[in-house]
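hey
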């Protein structure tokens, strides 16, 4: 299969490309398209044969459910058994946007999407290209991140092409994604709303709307063997090709420790990559140094995180040494991705 790449400007959308993408979806094929979070790998979410192609292309475990993407609340009604008051509050506050809501599913949703669960994850993206493809397809689109399973999520079309060339018909190139991390996932089917994956809508945001909100303990506790409530979260995610280590503690101690290791590894012939912040960019003395963004603007760190991990792979570094951020607001989502990428290797100083 030859994979086409077609550029689309979100502010001046080419309708012919949207029609091409939607025809592929309608005919059971795969299309990658940008959302405000990361690039998705999309198929007709009501077609089991089509969604099976997603798992095959990504090498994704079959028990890892898919998220359905819709373009209007009217499309939600046939996919779920009921829409609770809490769901209404979340939809009013955060849709379209980076929030995935877990509902009790209707019979129309195939088992291939839900991995046999009685629930289904649904979101309405805010990216105009994504919305137009969904509208034109007239189907909910199942779309996980468009990467090889376990690797850093794609925030640009070239990331998708590198991972999946020849495995899908079309990549719609809408440029770099905005947020850069996947959507927040919240389960509203239990007594207490529970965040199963942190993302662009924060715990603090959700608490303001819903009141009491819990966080799945596996998100913030990496020292104990806690089984995550979300099936997909038990798998390896976001991992670069090289070993990655994270350092947490007082600012100067972190910089000194990273410098110590970087100098030692460099002297031993290793290629070292350092992930730091704007505030420490000039303090490192060895290695390939990338700033993720400013500590005063964690959205910038989220935006750049996966892109930098991809750059580290492109540069073939032997080891990655990274600063940490605080476990609050957007920092919770950033640290969740970073620690998963590092396989839990975090050193407290």
């Amino acid at each position: 299969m030859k994979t086409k790449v077609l550029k689309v400007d979100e502010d001046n959308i080419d309708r012919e490309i949207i029609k091409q993408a939607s025809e592929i979806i309608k005919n059971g094929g795969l299309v990658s398209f940008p959302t405000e979070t990361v690039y998705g790998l999309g198929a007709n979410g009501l077609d089991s044969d089509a969604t099976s192609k997603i798992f095959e292309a990504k090498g994704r475990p079959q028990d890892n459910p898919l998220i359905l993407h819709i373009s209007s609340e009217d499309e939600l009604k046939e996919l779920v058994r009921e829409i609770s008051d809490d769901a209404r509050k979340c939809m009013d506050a955060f849709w379209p946007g980076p929030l995935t809501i877990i509902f009790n599913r209707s019979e129309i949703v195939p088992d291939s999407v839900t991995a046999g669960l009685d629930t289904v994850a649904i979101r309405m993206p805010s990216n105009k290209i994504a919305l137009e493809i969904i509208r034109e397809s007239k189907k909910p689109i199942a779309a996980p991140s468009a990467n090889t399973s376990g690797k850093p999520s794609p925030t640009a079309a070239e990331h998708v092409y590198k991972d999946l060339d020849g495995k899908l018909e079309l990549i719609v190139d809408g440029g770099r994604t905005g947020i850069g991390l996947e959507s927040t996932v919240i389960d509203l089917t239990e007594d207490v709303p529970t965040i199963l994956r942190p993302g662009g809508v924060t715990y603090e945001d959700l608490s303001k709307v819903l009141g009491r909100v819990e966080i799945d303990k596996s998100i913030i506790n990496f020292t104990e063997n806690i089984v995550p409530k979300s099936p997909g979260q038990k798998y390896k995610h976001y991992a670069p090709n090289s070993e990655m280590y994270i350092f947490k503690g007082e600012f100067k101690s972190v910089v000194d420790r990273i410098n110590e290791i970087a100098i030692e590894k460099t002297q031993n012939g290793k290629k070292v990559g350092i992930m730091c912040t704007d505030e420490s960019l000039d303090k490192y003395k060895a290695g390939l140094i990338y700033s993720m963004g400013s500590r005063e603007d964690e959205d910038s760190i989220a935006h750049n995180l996966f892109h930098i991990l991809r750059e580290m792979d492109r540069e073939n570094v032997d080891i990655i040494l990274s600063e940490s951020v605080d476990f609050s607001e957007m920092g919770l989502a950033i640290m969740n991705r970073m620690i998963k990428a590092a396989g839990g290797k975090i050193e407290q100083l």
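The two ends are 50 Å apart (CA to CA). The chain has a mean pLDDT of 95.
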